[in-house]
Amino acid sequence: MFLQTDCTSMPDNLAFSCARDAGAFFSAAPKTYDTARQEWLPGEHAPSDANAVLTVFGQAINQAMLEHVISALKETVVCHQVRCHSLHGHYGDSVFVITCSVADVAAAKAALHPLADRWRIELVLQTTQPTLSSPGLLVMDMDSTLIEMECIDEIAKLGGVGDEVSAVTLRAMRGELDFKASLLHRVSCLKGIDTSLLAALRDSIPLMPGAALLINTLKANNWRVVLASGGFTYFADYLCERLGLDLAVSNTLAVEDGRLTGDVIGEIVDASKKAEIVRTQAAAWQIPHSQTIAMGDGANDLTMMATAALGVACHAKPKVNQQADVAILRSGLHSVLYLLAP
After folding, report:
1. Who wins on pLDDT, 8 or 46?
2. Which of 20, 197, 248, 339 is the most exposed place for a label (fewest CB within 10 A)?
């Protein structure tokens, strides 16, 4: 069993300076932490009433931190078994999976945020866990999800209307405005911008950290990856080719004489269209619903998140973090892999 050391009596900010190789401790076999006795016991099998998985990940997570998390959550989460994730240490992160029982999922998730903020780690509670080794489907948003920018805001800056457009974008992503109406308004502000200026934006698109790693790993395991964006084909099609995605669906900006007209051509990719993409692409590739994931950051992504088996909020707006199945607050996109069973 795990023996307490003198460092456990130190203040919290000093206790974790004690070296504890948590990965080695959990790699041999799962363990159970007895909060009453404050000790670790062998825990080879989870009880039949276990209905959730709590994944704890971040940099240099040790046993003392895990003990604190388990003890702090004992009123809402009954933790049965702790083990290393199969990707523990692979990408520089400590990753632990806790099999648990949860009666009130909403209350349990609410209890996670203060702990995650305190330790600057991720705490993700799931009742649905797709499997990496089986074919699946990831449908992801583009702006502020796959990439670290809002393309329409950057285009607007070229036309001197950046502040006006970005203010509307922020309200739309928060769910304060109708997405379709707000998009048409913002695009109208782009009228007259020379399309030759867009090339520099496209070529310097900043990918979200971990994006390529996530996509390449999923593709290597026979997953399909689709971009469903309320942004524009000029950027989405480029990313689809660059990253080897299976499909990109987005909006088309109208162009006349080499300048934007301020209009959108064809059907607008809004919340309902994104959800439709999840359904149609899963059917097209014969992927079971249990193997579908939708990921985004804005309110217009919530419908597709609800449509998929697992909805992931990524560096998202508060409303989205609250309503999504799970939320990644500070890690790179590769951490979605930690939410999958091997």
Report:
1. 46
2. 197
